[in-house]
Write a structure and sequence with these properties.
Methylisocitrate lyase-like protein, about 300 residues, TIM Barrel, Pyrv/PenolPyrv_kinase-like_dom, 2 domains, about 50% helix, ICL/PEPM, Pyrv_kinase-like_dom_sf, alpha/beta
């Protein structure tokens, strides 16, 4: 338990909060997919109590490349660490792709994510040159290799003497069918995975069957706009039997048309007129306030600084 230095009382850590949320039978955990500090700050400002760092969004925002297995452990861990520490009280679940190598590398990935302040991560069974789970042509490692990834993750967690929620993801549905995917899910849970994640579910009936077959292991649902799976709301996912639902493309999907339109207007009309038509223009100060301007100024004043004593 973390200690509050001001009064000596203890409060739960972010990962303890996440585990308590998973154990709560009356709730479903809905996580917006964020990919940088700005989108994470907006989600936090709106009151989200769990965040999800999307691997696809991280790859596109950090590297400017499609989600084709090009992001490294350092790319992902650095981004996750920054997001997780914007508010250490809020749990962050982060994509960890394949674990970025063999058992030793998977162990290093888990240790690095834990030290970065990440509360949960998911590891999948694609080959190292993976691709987005909602694209075709995915290749898988053998079940034994996948099971060893999960075992390595659990071993690393124990060795680090800390905690992180280990989510086992399988992309086997597309090529091996439901029973083949379930064989892998069961192997992952046997090795100590906390949560089961079947990627690419194609119907409500399959989703219900999956949650039933995996019980009592909690299950995660991936809602990808325009992807292979049904467009469940958080409450619909709960009704099916899921404990966690992530919306990895939520922010990307909103940002893309808005930015594209504004840039097009700037090029064609001299300035982004659609922003003007919205009836409101955001000043730099207002935008900075999303990212903690007031808190930083208050901190400076409280520490005896004078740079912001007259405001900004």
């Amino acid at each position: 338990m973390a200690t509050n230095g001001s009064n000596g009382t203890s409060k739960p850590t972010a990962v303890q909060k996440l585990r308590a949320m998973i154990a709560d039978k009356n709730r479903v955990i809905a996580c917006p997919g964020v990919y940088d500090g700005y989108t994470a700050r907006i989600a936090l400002q709106e009151g989200c109590d769990v965040l999800y760092m999307t691997g696809a969004g991280t790859t596109m925002s950090v590297l400017g490349m499609a989600d084709m297995g090009v992001a490294t452990l350092n790319d992902m861990k650095t981004n996750a660490e920054m997001i997780a520490n914007l508010n250490p009280d809020i749990p962050l679940i982060a994509d960890a792709d394949t674990g970025y190598g063999g058992a030793i590398m998977v162990g290093r990935t888990v240790t690095q994510y834990m030290r970065a302040g990440v509360s949960g991560l998911h590891i999948e069974d694609q080959v190292q040159t993976k691709r987005c789970g909602h694209l075709k042509g995915k290749e898988l490692v053998d079940t034994s290799v996948y099971a060893s990834r999960i075992k390595a993750a659990v071993m690393a967690r124990e060795a680090a003497r800390g905690d992180i929620v280990i989510i086992a993801r399988t992309d086997a549905l597309q090529s091996l069918g439901y029973e083949g995917a379930m064989e892998r899910m069961r192997a992952a849970v046997k090795e100590g995975a906390d949560v089961a994640f079947l990627e690419g579910v194609t119907s409500k009936e399959m989703a219900e069957q999956f949650c039933k077959d995996m019980a009592p292991t909690p299950c995660l649902y991936n809602n990808v706009a325009g992807g292979l799976s049904p467009d469940f709301t958080a409450q619909e996912a709960k009704g099916v039997g899921y404990k966690i639902i992530i919306f990895p493309a939520l922010v990307m999907e909103v940002v893309y048309p808005a930015v594209r339109k504004a840039v097009r207007e700037m090029l064609d009309e001299g300035k982004p007129k659609s922003v003007e038509k919205s009836g409101y223009r955001y000043s730099p100060k207002e935008l900075f306030e999303v990212c903690g301007l007031k808190e930083a100024m208050d901190f400076d004043v409280a520490a005896g600084g004078t740079a912001y004593s007259n405001g900004a």
